[in-house]
Amino acid sequence: SYKLDLPVGLRKRGIHDVFHASLLRVHEPNDDRLFPGRLENQVFDLEDPENEWAIDKFIGHRGSGDSTIFEALWKSGDRTWVPLASIAHTDALRAYLEAAGV
């Protein structure tokens, strides 16, 4: 295992500073042409003053009951699948369920 010297801001946010050697890779700078919107400040600055890391809307869902997962479109433009338990409190979910007639 390796212990990294993380900036204070990351340590305050609870980022763990010890990693197993198998998880470490040679650093490759971000290629904004291939991966737009993944700049350093989006990773480091977790304050999110513009609410960029919020869910814009839900596109669809799979499953039923507590095992339901929802396809989320984030304000950053990314799409991911998220479990019901982690988004049950959101306004976006309420709007999606209302539009679906639930």
Structural write-up:
With 102 residues, this protein is α+β, with helices and mostly antiparallel strands. It contains 4 helices and 5 strands. The chain has helices at residues 8-12, 40-44, 84-87, 91-99, and strands spanning 2-3, 18-19, 55-62, 69-74, 79-83. The strands form 2 sheets. It has a 3-stranded antiparallel β-sheet. Strands 1-2 form a two-stranded antiparallel sheet. A hairpin with a 6-residue loop joins strand 3 (55-62) and strand 4. It is elongated. The termini are far apart. The relative contact order is 0.12. The model has no long low-confidence stretch (mean pLDDT 79).
Strand content: 15-25%
SSE string: EHEHEEEHH
Category from helices, strands and their pairing: alpha+beta
Terminus-to-terminus distance: 49 Å
Work out the number of β strands: 5
Q: Largest sheet at a glance?
A: 3 strands, antiparallel
The percent range for helix content is 10-25%
Number of helices: 4
Uncertain spans, ≥5 residues at pLDDT below 50? none
The shape, in one word, is: elongated
Within the largest sheet, what's the order of strands?
A: 3-4-5
Radius of gyration from the CA trace?
17 Å
Compute the average pLDDT: 79
